């Protein structure tokens, strides 16, 4: 099953990078489910919301997808990013939780479904410049297409794509920056 | 925002036109070499007797040490900036440059009378060495830190240290063409200190700038 997952996900990711949105959606949904299973298994004492880590991981996968070499397996790459983001999440909350370094990609997680609550990503979204924020909200939460969003705001589709791209990159960066601010706080305490 | 909503946004931004990280590293290596060459020519330049020096073992050995460091650090930093890339083999090759220097030091100690060890170690270019290598290497280091930001190093501080070693190896390769002190005793001492300065700057730079 794992081998089949790997081959399928690699294929979807290659298609996505070439611009196939349907393949990318498929890739992201399946990856989200796997990462969710992985993260939930690792967070046993609470304190960190698994879904926040899932979302951070998806954003990191998105903005760093040029670091995946297409001739390499994609799942170990996904889990390496997920583990980095998980350790980050623990550190940010001042927790020193040991994560078994060795068993990352080898023990593949079971897919799991999302639970709903207040999210870190909303705070990151709120910090965006208004133009980017409204475009990202329109395409995500409000579920509009690029074309519908362009019509709603009276701007070109290219402008929507640029705002979306920059907005997502800025959100991903905010996750990283926030961690630094809090880490300093913890040192002072 | 629910994860499904986030996926809708990521999805609409599917196509990636970003340069693959592997290509970015080669581009960076080229740019860093040009920067180092320009700074080298503008500041110190090659020694006047370089044509005759090229026929001596000690002079040539310096380039073997410095390029060994640069090449092994380049391989390691490429792996360190890619999640899940295996770093073991590249890390093992990092022993090559120090090992070559140690062998050369032993040979030097065997072939030179003990009375001369001190003068050979101290040399006459210590201060120039300690300032020139960091000076030539700082521009390349900035380029490498920028590529680390572009990449996804899961151990940023370690990657930054290796970026410093890479910049150091590159800078020392140029500096070696200027310096008259060819003794392995000099190289092992002062080059090492100068490169360590860049490695420390690299670690610091990565800690501050490489967050993702």
Automatic annotation (TrEMBL), chain A:
Segments forming domain RNA polymerase sigma-70 region: 30-96
Any one GO molecular function term: sigma factor activity
GO biological process, one term: DNA-templated transcription initiation
InterPro entries: RNA_pol_sigma-70-like, RNA_pol_sigma-70_dom, RNA_pol_sigma70_r2, RNA_pol_sigma70_r4_t2, RNA_pol_sigma_r2, RNA_pol_sigma_r3/r4-like, WH-like_DNA-bd_sf
Domain (RNA polymerase sigma factor 70 region 4 type): residue spans on this chain: 120-170
Superkingdom of this protein's organism: Bacteria
Keyword tags: DNA-binding, Sigma factor, Transcription, Transcription regulation
Membrane-crossing segments per the record: none
Record family assignment: Belongs to the sigma-70 factor family. ECF subfamily.
Record NCBIfam families: PRK12512.1, sigma70-ECF
Entries under PANTHER family matching the protein: ECF RNA POLYMERASE SIGMA FACTOR SIGD, RNA POLYMERASE ECF-TYPE SIGMA FACTO
Name under which the protein is recorded: RNA polymerase subunit sigma
Species in which this protein is naturally found: Mesorhizobium mediterraneum
Lineage: Bacteria, Pseudomonadati, Pseudomonadota, Alphaproteobacteria, Hyphomicrobiales
From TrEMBL, chain B:
InterPro entries: NrsF (IPR009495)
Keyword check for Transmembrane: yes
Leader sequence residues: none
Keyword Transmembrane helix: yes
TM annotation in the entry: 24-44, 59-80, 92-112, 124-150, 157-177, 189-210
Keyword field: Membrane, Transmembrane, Transmembrane helix
Pfam families documented for this protein: NrsF (PF06532)
UniProt-recorded name of the protein: DUF1109 family protein
Organism, as annotated: Mesorhizobium mediterraneum
């Amino acid at each position: 099953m794992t081998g089949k997952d790997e081959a399928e996900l690699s294929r979807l990711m290659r298609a996505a990078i070439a611009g196939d949105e349907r393949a990318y959606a498929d890739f992201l949904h399946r990856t989200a489910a796997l990462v969710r299973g992985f993260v939930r298994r690792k967070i046993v004492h609470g304190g960190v919301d698994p879904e926040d880590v899932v979302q951070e991981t998806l954003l990191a996968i998105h903005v760093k997808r040029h670091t995946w070499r297409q001739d390499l397996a994609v799942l170990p790459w996904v889990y390496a990013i997920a583990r980095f983001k998980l350790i980050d999440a623990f550190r940010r909350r001042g927790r020193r939780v040991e994560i078994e370094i060795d068993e990352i990609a080898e023990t593949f997680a079971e897919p799991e479904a999302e639970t709903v609550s207040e999210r870190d990503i909303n705070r990151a979204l709120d910090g965006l410049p208004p133009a980017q924020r409204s475009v990202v909200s329109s395409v995500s939460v409000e579920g509009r297409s690029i074309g519908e969003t362009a019509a709603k705001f009276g701007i070109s589709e290219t402008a929507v794509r640029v705002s979306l791209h920059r907005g997502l990159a800025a959100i991903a960066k905010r996750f990283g920056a926030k961690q630094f601010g809090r880490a300093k706080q913890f040192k002072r305490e | 925002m629910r994860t499904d909503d986030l996926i809708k946004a990521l999805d609409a931004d599917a196509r990636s036109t970003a340069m693959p990280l592997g290509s970015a590293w080669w581009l960076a290596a080229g740019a860093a070499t040009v920067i180092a060459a320009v700074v080298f020519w503008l500041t110190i330049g090659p020694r006047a007797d370089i044509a005759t020096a090229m026929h001596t073992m000690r002079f040539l050995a310096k380039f073997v040490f410095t390029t060994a460091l640069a090449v092994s650090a380049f391989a390691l930093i490429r792996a360190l900036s890619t999640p899940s890339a295996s770093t073991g083999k590249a890390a093992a090759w990092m022993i090559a440059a120090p090992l070559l220097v140690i062998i050369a030091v032993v040979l030097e100690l065997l072939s030179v009378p003990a009375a001369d060890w001190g003068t050979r170690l101290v040399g006459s270019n210590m201060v120039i060495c300690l300032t020139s290598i960091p000076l030539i290497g700082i521009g390349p280091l900035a380029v490498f830190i920028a590529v680390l930001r572009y990449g996804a190093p899961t151990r940023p501080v370690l990657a930054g240290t290796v970026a410093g070693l890479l910049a150091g190896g590159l800078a020392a390769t140029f500096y070696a063409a200027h310096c008259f002190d060819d003794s392995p005793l000099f190289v092992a001492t002062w080059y090492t200190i100068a490169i360590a300065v860049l490695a420390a700057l690299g670690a610091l730079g990565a800690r501050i700038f490489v967050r993702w």
